[in-house]
Design a protein that fits this description.
With about 425 residues, this protein is of the alpha/beta class. The chain has two domains: about 130 residues, Urease, subunit C, domain 1; about 270 residues, Metal-dependent hydrolases (TIM Barrel, Alpha-Beta Barrel). The chain has twelve helices and 20 strands. The chain is globular and about 70 Å long. Bound molecules: zinc ion.
Length: about 425
């Protein structure tokens, strides 16, 4: 229902965009989180797609306000920035990852993704870094560009394309040796092949390169390092020469260490980190995307009744390793591996970050200004500051006290366009 109202609002706002001078929208809430800290007595003014003022109401310059949106009891904050998603996957308890990759036609996967990105935006995520199409080729590029062209509603996307894996490591696997199946990522090995594959992915206009520094292919199907140090360095060198970053899936200490030394910017998962690895991350300024929510979802799909059964060994270990990362001062990226669990339920990760020992305000920073800086988009989004894009949400209550208030989204604005919100929010001054 809200979506229908938002569509009407979108049309209204699109219609106003033909005027040279766009009306100023003034947002008034009980408190404002600017990406750094919480403030009382602040207002935010938007004109067109940009924020033109964010600060104390009493210091606001004289503006001719066209519309005022009153949000009593609510908190205004920058749109959330999800750091680890797969818009082309849906929850594994609906369809296993294998069956999604092997059996679902790409057209179905794109249609699902269209729903996923809409649900994500309406949940207050206005920017999202998507970490691989998982067998759906470069469909993520088309989804990103369709959102940018205004064809479908969704967050601003940064996409990885196919991602890079070492031969033999990635799935789906376990078939007869003469059966060839499509893989969830692109294989490449050795200097020449890696240079060619990195460049071909860059040529498709991916925003960054994702590499799997380890995977479950060790003895007994345990996680073990994949690429050699030299191979990872090749990937980073070739990617960096196009001005793009590399991020690494890594859950073993060895895989993480090689990836960090090679120069990746974020480590995804990181379950098996040691103190030495965390110290290295801190020294090299590499952030951790812990994907707590994916770990919990997979444990629950495996039969764990959270809150009734004791924590499985993997969850106990993850809590410990996440706490160790915090204690070591490692920068934490908000990234839950959403897609393993439902798109639009991104807040799960934020709730778990608090549960596992992080301060609420630090979680809010991670989901806004920190992720913006990590993804090199902090000159555009991630804070409520004059000049930045008007990516703004309002939530009922105070997320600095109760992180779950982020589930009570009352307003979603992206680039000055309102996608979620009810018409009674508006009154003409
Ligand atoms: Zn992932």
């Amino acid at each position: 229902m809200n979506y229908i109202i938002s569509c009407v609002l979108m049309v209204l706002f699109t219609a106003t965009s033909i005027h040279a001078e766009e009306p100023v929208i003034l947002l008034k809430a009980t408190r404002v989180f600017d990406g750094e800290r919480m403030h009382a007595g602040w207002v935010v003014a938007v004109q067109g797609e940009r924020i033109i003022y964010a600060g104390a109401a009493k210091n606001m310059p004289v503006l001719e306000v066209g519309k005022t949106i009153e949000l009593p009891g609510q908190t205004l904050m920058p749109g959330l920035i999800e750091g680890h998603s797969h818009v082309l996957l849906h929850p594994y308890n609906e369809t296993s990852w294998h069956d999604q990759v092997l059996k679902e036609p790409e057209s179905e996967r794109v249609i699902r993704a269209t729903n996923h990105v809409r649900a994500t935006l309406l949940a207050g995520i206005t920017t999202m870094r998507d970490l691989g199409s998982e067998g759906a080729g470069y469909a993520d590029i088309g989804i990103r560009d369709s959102i940018n062209k205004g064809l479908i509603p969704g967050p601003r996307l940064l996409v990885a394309g196919r991602a890079i894996v070492a031969t033999g490591s990635y799935g789906p696997k376990g078939f007869h040796e003469r059966v060839t199946v499509p893989l969830g990522a692109e294989t490449a090995d050795g200097y020449d092949d890696l240079v060619r594959v990195v460049r071909s992915q860059i040529g498709r206009n991916v925003d960054f390169i994702k590499v799997y520094a380890d995977y479950r292919w060790g003895a007994g199907n345990t996680a073990a390092a994949t690429f050699t140090q030299a191979e990872l360095e090749t990937i980073v060198e070739v990617t960096a020469s196009s001005g793009r970053p590399v991020v690494a899936h890594a859950s073993t200490a060895e895989g993480m260490k090689r990836a960090i030394l090679a120069g990746v910017e974020t480590i995804e998962h990181g379950d098996g980190a040691t103190q030495e690895v965390y110290a290295l991350m801190r020294k090299r300024n590499v952030a951790l995307c812990p994907t707590l929510a994916a770990g919990e979802a997979i444990a629950q799909y495996g039969g764990w009744n959270k809150g009734i059964d004791p924590d499985p060994e993997r969850i106990v270990a993850k809590k410990k390793s996440f706490k160790a990362a915090l204690d070591a001062g490692v920068t934490i990226c908000f990234g839950g591996d959403v897609g393993v669990y439902p798109h639009g339920d991104n807040v799960r990760e934020l709730e778990l970050m608090v549960d596992y020992g992080m301060q609420n305000i630090a979680v809010l920073q991670s989901a806004t200004s920190i992720n913006a800086a990590l993804f090199h988009i902090d000159d555009e989004v991630g804070r409520l500051r004059a000049g930045l894009r008007a990516d703004i949400i309002a939530v009922d209550g105070n997320p600095a006290e109760d992180i779950s208030t982020l589930r009570q989204i009352r307003l979603v604005m992206k680039g000055g366009v309102i996608y979620q919100g009810t018409s009674d929010l508006f009154r003409t001054k």
